[in-house]
Amino acid sequence: MKSIQKYSLILFSTIVVLTSCTKEYDTPTNRTIPVGNVLTIAEVRALHVPGTETRITQDITVYGVVTADESTGNLYKETYIQDETGGLYLRFTTNSGVYIGDSIRVNLNKTKLLRYNQMLQVDSVHPDNNVTKIATQQFRTPELVSISTLKANMESYQGKLVQLDGVFFIEGGLTKTYADGVNKESVSRILQDAGSNQIDVRTSGYANFANDTLPAGSGTFIGVVAQYNSGLQLIIRNPNELKMTGSRPIFKDFNDQSLTSGGWTVQHISGPSYTEWGIFAATNSAAKISCYNSGTSSGVASESWLISPVINLSSSTSPYFNFRNVVRYGLNPQLKVMVSTNYDGTSNPNTATWVDLTSQATWDTDINSWSTWTSSGNLSLTPYISATTYIAFQHIGINASGVGTWEIDDIGINP
Amino acid sequence: MKSLKLFLVVLGVVVINQSFAQSDTLQAIDDDTLTRFVPQFSTTIEQLDDESENQDVSGLLQSSRDVYTSIAGFNFGVARFRIRGYDSDNFTAMMNGVTLNDPEMGRAIWAYWGGLNDITRYQESKSGISASQLTFGGIGGYSNINARASSQRKGTKISYALANQTYDHRLMFTTSTGMMENNLAVTVSGSMRYANEGYVEGTFYRGASYFLSVEKKFNDKHSLGFVGYGSPTVSGGQSISVQEAYDLTGNNQYNSFWGYQAGEKRNSRIRNTHKPMMMLNHYFTLNDKTTINSSLFYSFGRGGQTRLNWYDAADPRPDYYRNLPSYYSNPGDEALYELYTQLWQTDVNTQQLNFDQMYFANSKNLHSVVDANGVKGNTVTGNRAKYIIEEYRTDHSQYGFNSTFTHQLNEKIMLSGGLNGSFYKSMNFKVMNDLLGADYWVDVDRFAERDFADETAAQSNVEVPNRIVKVGDKFGYDYDININTINSFAQAEGKTEKIDWYVGLTISNTSFWRTGNVKNGLFQDNSKGDSEKKSFLNYGIKTGLIYKITGRHLVGINLAFLTVAPNSRDAFVSPRTRNQIVDNLKSEINTTGDISYMVRYPKVKTRLTGFYTSIKDKTWSRSFFNDEYNTFINYMMTGVDQLFTGIELGAEVNITPTIEATGAFTMGDYIYNSRPVVTISQDNSTKLLAENKIVYFENYKIGGMPQTAASLGLKYSSPKFWFAGANFNYFMDAYLEANPDRRTEEALAGFVSTDPQVEKLLEQTKLDDGYTINVFGGKSWRIKRKYFVRININVNNVLDKKDYATGGFEQLRYDKQNIDRFPPKVGYMYGRTYFAMVSFSF
Description:
The structure holds two protein chains of two kinds. By secondary structure, chain A is mainly beta. Chain A has three domains: 37-135, CATH 2.40.50.140; 143-246, CATH 2.40.50.140; 250-414, Jelly Rolls (Sandwich). Chain A has four helices and 30 strands. Chain A has helices at 2-20, 41-47, 147-152, 154-157; strands at 37-39, 54-55, 60-68, 78-83, 86-92, 103-107, 112-116, 119-125, 131-135, 143-144, 161-169, 187-193, 198-203, 218-228, 231-236, 243-246, 250-252, 265-270, 278-280, 286-290, 292-293, 298-299, 302-307, 320-328, 336-340, 355-356, 374-375, 379-380, 390-397, 405-414. In chain A, strands 1, 2, 3, 4, 5, 6, 7, 8 and 9 form a nine-stranded mixed β-sheet that branches. In chain A, strands 17, 19, 20, 24, 27, 28 and 30 form a seven-stranded antiparallel β-sheet that branches. In chain A, strands 11-12-13-15-14 form a five-stranded mixed beta barrel. Chain A is elongated, with a radius of gyration of 33 Å. The longest helix of chain B has 13 residues, at 334-346. The model of chain B is unreliable at 1-63 (pLDDT under 50). In chain B, strand 32 (604-626) and strand 33 (631-654) form a beta hairpin. Chain B is built from eleven helices and 43 strands. At the A-B interface, helix 1 and strand 9 of A face strand 8, strand 9, helix 7, strand 20 and helix 8 of B.
């Protein structure tokens, strides 16, 4: 027994020693990326010689803040950085691994500077060998611009983070999506402002919001600016940043032969059917109203309303609307234009409070021609900003001779 | 009557020689008598258990007396041969009657008691269906290690082995007192195995093992024993890769798992296991007719496997398909193709992992985590890890009892039976092993993060969102699998002059369930808490007989029908993330029969067996790491039917008193013969990649092993205590395991039958034939009639053939239009290896 005990003691102690030594590895010596010449983004952009592809072979460093990243999948192996002098588009060999707000130092050695369809880009950036993160959460405020300013200064806005106010997707509200997430195909959607200026918004089919529905409304858009040949494309960073919930401009031209399309309603309160709002002409249609009774060649008492869809003005600052009008045969009764902030959209409009704006509009006064279409001028809705603003055209028929017929067309409401 | 007799003769009765509960089946293979048994033909007897990665059952059969199984066990193992094509979960491994199979996977894992060869060689093994007084057994057979202290050979043995395989050095020590005067018997054994670098580049091995068995005899009726053992092992892994990587490096043992760190080789896949077992055994002899042996056992420990992971960074694995030249084989990419080819041939940091680069990437990845650890306003800033090494842990605890009895009813009939219960729980989770120089990791899933705009979806644990993970922290997933089994069997066996027979029955109950310990962001409703509890009642019946035509010529037959509960490992859809059980989960139905003809002369022993086995309603589940999704993809097939038919032939001939020849041959046909239904899920998405797809799997071969194999050996044993020999082994009909998804209507959709893609998609790759020549020799000396010194040397694959692919699988990821884009992964047999041992005993 003694020998056994001795042996086992030796044995077990060696085992303990052996198993207690797990492998340890040395930490590799810390490497840093050299800095070399420091250039601003504008200076880097200026390095590019048009029509060439420049391979950078020395240590040139540019500093910038990341303004767009890959976290939604809308960007892939690419990112945008910006400093006080401009924006720069970086294309990586793999995932960039940088995030919005990262302040990074990029050594451009071994990268390429080129233009692809007019977009200046730094190509072949290696996320580890070229990039050093020096700070985080340095979020950059987007620059507020208009579509027309962007288009007039494409080069200087390339790669920059911008904000557009009062814009909307033309295809918004039609259940269209940002892109084709099923077939993973990129799609361009058109963004428009109140002045009818347009710009493309390009979204990747791999974005995690590709299959989300475009916002229907109007408001603030934030994205980065890319160029594709002679046009610009805005790239969404994250749809959460888009505050496009306000009412988009409403434009009613009646060319679809419908009084009520787009959420408009007609409330015929009293009077025979010919005193109700109707459509005039099969082409270049307009809305028409009259209380003229051809049997008696006289007017009849009646009341008929043409009411807009609800207009959400809660995010508007100076909304207004306008329309065109023409009158013939007589100036009376005067068509009235009104506004309400407490109408419910369906009830008898007389149950709501309406403010009469008739006197603020310009009206046609030539009763001898249908050709004297007159623009109302812009009627301010600023005093009536609410989430449930309505405008309406009210016609009160009168039992009198010499009544006229009114037509209105091209009603434009700009929230 | 005559025809019945004829029928019986033709059918042949009975079993293979080992199918009986002969009292002498328990073979203590004694090194003193190296020439005594066929098994010494083995070139690997000393190492079999070290092939822990293979976990091949064939090794268990090392001490089988059967000619065929012993040869197959020793010589076919290198080719991943499996006896009769069975999975190892059809084989029951026991110690002192206590089942050692892992309840989750169903199979025995040799590594848990690796290095205890001096003990584990004392075992009773039987292949196929047979009589047993210890267990009903699976269709593959069983093996029982006798660890009882009083059964160990008295004496002390110290051995040292030098090798160039998994390990280079092994030191082993065993001492047994035998039953001492104080009625106490003690056995102590221990070993150390070590390789700074194993046969495969970048691998290493550090293993220890310990064993203690104590037995106290109280009186003639009662003895009490204790056995405890464990085998803490840390080893570096070997990859299997695509052919392109082998071609580029010119090395069929290319290992993509390692790379340099600060000039030192580091392996990314480190297995670190230690699962000790302890048991109390009560040996009770009621009288000369009845014995009852009972055990209580407890086992616990850690299982760990490390792996690289990365977040928002390039895939660091050198043989990732985008890092191989072939990714650049499109027109226009010629320059890159050239560059990558050149780098692969000249730059070790391209061929292998580049840890320095990973440290570099981690060293400057400053990042702020907002609302870290779920605390509003808590912003953590530091270097977020792009690359990490994480450890997949499968810890466990298990306790249970086992009790068996034997009763000699009369001279002709012996009864036996048993009851055992096991209560098992595995703890599965990931632990941060190394941040590779970074400050922290965030416990989110990158893929879910990108795929879902909702940020909670990506959280591994929604109760602590944006959790900061440091070294040693659990993360990713955390769940338990609980398995309770109660198992009983009864057997009657008898012996007459002409006929030996047995009949056995079993009935068992298995129940299992999952317990989720964290609430996963993608599966908030079904990830935390207990899953549905699945219960299976199983039964089996077996019978067999041997008809002794003469004492020299015997015919045997064995038949069995049994149902087997599905392995819990196959039962859950993505257990890492959710409590979801595979639809239509059923017990598998095994039907098996074999018929043998045996000849036993002193100089010639042969056996010829034909077998037929059907396994129906098997659940087949695989979990693969998919690099595109950066997650595990789970394939679950139900209704998988398999058919195993074939013949086995073994022969042992003593040509002269000193020269012995052995031969073994098997030809099998192991196929799938149903159209299973496959469901494919991914760990990090609620989306199923496929649901209830029909797999046209009929007549596909079961892959991963040679279905035909042959061995011929010669051995010379000198009366002057030395021996030498050689054997030649040939392997054929091995196939790559087929990807079920490629054999579906959906995969073929869009093609017409004449399209070349159709054949490409459907065909199954057959591997080339292979062979090995092994030589061995040994000598022993007796010193002062008291001490023995022995030397053994084995050289495997003497011809150093390195081009035999022993197995592999079609990648589950595939490109319909271009199958070669994700080519199969194959593994090759080692070239020449040696194992030399010197031992000293007294």
